[in-house]
Design goal:
This protein has one domain: Up-down Bundle (Growth Hormone, Chain: A), CATH 1.20.1250.20. 73% of the residues lie in helices and 0% in strands. The protein is built from 17 helices and no strands. The protein is globular. The two termini are 23 Å apart.
């Protein structure tokens, strides 16, 4: 994996070995992506015990479902609004500056969330945390794409650095397992040893090297040179809907909404389905939480496999739309099948199904972060990414978490776990069927170089 920075003008970038600074950029970006996914995933794992501790709430009650909907949706809606603003600010003031401030916001919010005493306080701090995550991810992708302008190298850098999201998922798995198993040996937090509080606290650790190193890394050379020459146009959200970009903006926003709907409407509900499996119901509370953590490990493996699968596919793909459809079709089959049969077949089948479903889902996520930088020019790159990922994905797509909760309440039956599994299965089918249909209108990028 090699590259040299690109400058504007007619020069063609040539290949060379990565410099120590470029390796540092890749490492820091990968660590940032890992922390982002840690914060996105952990709430689905700790939600049930946190609501039990903070409000005495139990699954199946209206009040429990209301707080599930709030905590799984409102932070992402807030992240969508401010993530769009963050993309605009990255285009206006530079990628590096926005990255540094976003880290400061979400590290302080994540630290504070471990000490909350009410569901409302947890909701507020989760909003601040996800705001920082959404801003950071958009700015980091634009930053990396512009630091590595050669098409094949850029795709590999974006693909490989995002494999670290599997590390973020693994951190959740290990952190929660350690907290559940050894919490009584750890110092008290808020007067107790609740495992979910330690899991929130562990997520702050990766931010320490990010805060120390990122301010000293280079700004995007493309953005910096255009800014110095006075040729950097001011970003405008309205420009995304000009004739040259309208179709791209509308289709990518809708398709990212459906992509994130699979994660929010299906995968985030898994930790609440697992306690209802036939071979889990008779376990002790500690054993149940350990089982939740163990199943999550198969999600982590799927995260890593999905990123690697995409890297292998993208460097061989000549067209982007067929590549995306090749991921959507199996998702449309695998997701509903896994969720519909797991209540009958049990834990081992669920683990295998979760691995396969996560692999396909994450490969599709990788597609978007390689595709979006290629369809917007420098002055709109962060804004365009921010609109699709945050308005589409975070604000609209994550509402699927609420829809699945509502749908589970309307399905006949007394078993809340089975109803939730069937609701998630239905959600998985419809979001991927919708994505497949929209893919026929997705614009194909022109060439391998980034638009100026």
């Amino acid at each position: 994996m090699v590259s040299t920075p690109l400058t504007t003008g007619s020069r063609i970038p040539t290949e060379a070995r990565l410099t120590p600074v470029q390796w540092a950029v890749c490492f820091v970006a990968a660590l940032g992506f890992a922390f982002d996914i840690y914060e996105v995933i952990l709430m689905s794992v700790i939600l049930r015990p946190a609501l039990a501790d903070l409000g005495g709430l139990r699954p199946g009650t209206p009040e429990f479902d209301r707080w599930v909907s709030l905590l799984l949706y409102v932070p992402y809606a807030a992240g969508g609004v401010f993530g769009l603003l963050g993309g605009y600010l990255a285009d206006r003031f530079g990628r590096r500056r926005v990255l540094v401030w976003s880290i400061a916001i979400y590290s302080l919010a994540a630290l504070s969330s471990a000490f909350v005493t009410s569901p409302g306080a947890l909701l507020i701090l989760r909003c601040l945390t996800i705001v920082g995550v959404c801003v950071e991810y958009v700015a980091a992708v634009a930053w990396l794409a512009e630091l590595f302008p050669i098409a094949r190298q850029r795709e590999r850098v974006l693909g490989f650095t995002q494999t670290s999201t599997a590390l973020g998922g693994l951190m959740v798995t290990v952190g929660y397992y350690v907290a559940v198993t050894y919490s009584d040996r750890l110092p008290q937090i808020a007067g107790g040893h609740a495992a979910w509080r330690y899991t929130l606290l562990f997520g702050v650790l990766p931010t320490i090297p990010l805060i120390l190193v990122r301010p000293f890394l280079p700004e995007s050379p493309v953005w910096r040179e255009k800014k110095a020459l006075g040729t950097l146009r001011l970003p405008r959200v309205s420009a995304l809907f000009e004739p040259a970009y309208r179709r791209t903006t509308v289709v990518t926003t809708a398709m990212m909404a459906l992509s994130l709907a699979a994660s929010a409407g299906v995968m985030l509900h898994l930790p609440r389905i697992i306690p209802g499996l036939p071979d889990v119901r008779g376990l002790t509370p500690v054993q149940i939480e350990q089982t939740v953590s163990a199943v999550h490990f198969f999600e982590d493996l799927g995260q890593f496999a999905g990123r690697l699968l995409f890297v292998l596919l993208v460097v061989r793909a000549t067209k982007q739309r067929p590549l995306l459809r090749g991921l959507l079709v199996p998702c449309m089959v695998v997701f509903p099948l896994v969720l519909a049969v797991c209540p009958q077949l049990g834990l081992r089948w669920l683990e295998a199904g979760v691995f396969l479903a996560t692999t396909l889902m994450v490969a599709q996520f990788s597609f978007w972060w390689n595709y979006l930088p290629r369809v917007y020019p420098t002055h709109l790159r962060g804004t365009g990414e921010g609109f699709a990922a945050n308005v589409g994905g975070r604000m609209i797509g994550t509402f699927a978490a609420v829809l699945t909760t509502w749908l589970s309440a309307t399905i006949p039956g007394d078993d809340v776990f089975v109803r939730l599994a069937y609701a998630a299965a239905a959600m998985g089918f419809f979001v991927y069927a919708g994505g497949l249909l929209l893919s026929f209108w997705l614009p194909e990028p022109k060439g391998g170089r980034l638009p100026e």
